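Supplementary Methods S3. Input chains for the assembly prediction are listed below.
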Amino acid sequence: GNSVTQMEGPVTLSEEAFLTINCTYTATGYPSLFWYVQYPGEGLQLLLKATKADDKGSNKGFEATYRKETTSFHLEKGSVQVSDSAVYFCALRAQGAQKLVFGQGTRLTINP
Amino acid sequence: KAGVTQTPRYLIKTRGQQVTLSCSPISGHRSVSWYQQTPGQGLQFLFEYFSETQRNKGNFPGRFSGRQFSNSRSEMNVSTLELGDSALYLCASSAHRDRGQTNEKLFFGSGTQLSVL
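Predicted structure tokens for the full assembly:
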């Protein structure tokens, strides 16, 4: 079946550090890939998405590239801020499907 | 435009009871999905409704059920509660396009935190 694997957290960084959160997936065909963010006490917000191989999603300084050859969708940000502290979820949606399959989530804490 | 509204925000029940959670989607959205979030299992898909019909169902026991009304509002019900049902239940809505295309942007509510004692 379809699945998503994320690097385990928690991840703690200093402000202005470089961020990478690894995400790999297993799926047949060509799924769409997403990163969602969850701030404390809130629901999930879509951070970025990519719908086909080599697409790069970007938003708020975050980027992720859909790599079909390595079945990966790693999240990166060049300089993190304290306000980026949250839980990040990688997810996929299989072709023709409505539901999202999520990774386990990675808790990120940024210290000033 | 108001976001996805879930009520109540917090709920405490005891084993064996039943519970009903409510979700009001964004105005104009016709598809509503439910997810269960727990520390151990992460986010798991429960079911999806569109035009008052269940379109997809996740791998949960029959104690978990739902419905959607003509105004697109949705409820989910859990009967005979177990300790393991303690979780954050998230509702998400999307503007499901006609002609069978799936819309890829889901808008999530803040969830209902259910505690079963």
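DSSP finds no helices and twelve strands in chain A. The interface with chain B takes residues 32, 34, 36, 41-46, 49, 51, 89, 91, 93, 96-105 of chain A (CB under 8 Å).
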